[in-house]
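Hi R.,

Here's the chain you asked about this morning:
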Amino acid sequence: MHQRTWLSILTFPLVAAFTYPMVVRHSDPPRKESKPANQDPLAGLSDIQDVLALVREHYVDAPDMGKVIAGGIQGTLERAHPLNAYLSPEDLRLPDPGSADPGLKLRKSQIYAQVIAVHPNGPAAKAGVHVGDIIRKLDGQSLGPMSAWTVERSLRGIEGSEVTMLWYDGMAGTTKKLTLKRGKNSRLAIGIRKEPTASVVTLHDLEAGRFQELQAVLNTLDARLPLVLDLRQCVGGDLTEASQVAGLFAGKVPFLTIQEAGKPERVLEAMGEKKAAFAKVAVLTGFGSIGPAEALAAALKKQSLPTFGERTAAMGVERTRFQLRTGGAAEIVNRRWVGAGGEKLDRQGFLPEFLIRAQRGVKIEEDPLPRILEQLEKKPIPKAEVKPAMHAFKQNFDRGRFDREPRAREIV
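And the predicted structure, written out as tokens:
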């Protein structure tokens, strides 16, 4: 017998003696379970009081405890939702700055703000500011300590006044100091683009009266051609108006669910009867689709209308101002919009079925119409084939073969 075989036989009892306790676990004494952690969500309030006392007693230079506490409140509110804001008693006494603005809308995000809308004829657009650009300072003040309310207020002023911002130009990749004059932004007419192969209708908002205007515009178009509803620069408006527009293309269908703490969910339906009898209808969204436009896109996608573009800004929320005992106030996001397809429009926004990313570089934005028409010409997958495919995906997901939900298909 080979000498290595003899060595294995002789050392086996020694190896077994050491490995047996590690392999056989049932003989181990049961471990004591650790005590459950304190589940009280307000248990940390005493720590906050202790921290404030430590700052007050041990900081080398005496801190302004009013600012420390106000900053802590604002940080707590922003942690819950970036649109939440704390207003001090002094903030509430500030006069109205005016209704003019430089033609852009910002969304505060920690130490900067992102441009989510630009009025096509406003000062910001003429200066070259685009949706997606970053603003780091307003009138020389860093945005970090500002609340969403302060940022919004800082943009407004009397007509002809100026606002200075430190602007990161996404096109050039440089940071610039930019001074813009505030002005009045006129209401834009519905955009109409007629091509031999399709019609494109652009909605800039969903304010009162847009439904009737859109109805009149659609009557002038050739219903035999595909229609593209462009919502990429559709900023704000009214949910009722948006639901009427949805009804125009889909009839009386579920439109939106509004969730509010402590209250039953409220489900809105699209109003009216379907009247837009076009051969094909597609919806185009972007980061500048804000508020009711996000709900409109989600409702039409739920009715199997093809949707294209980019994820929206996730601004489907409502805020309420609550008075505080000290004389200040807190603006809280207390209502969430949930799209017809289950989209949380206050967090994730709306994701279209087919991604068409905005082009940056030489061209600000490439015309997406050719790609949309190309996709519309493709034959849809029969429903009989869709269900087995989704069943197979679910099986793979349950088995751990996928770590995320299916994403939108990118066609660019």
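The longest strand covers residues 329-339.

Let me know if you need anything else.
M.
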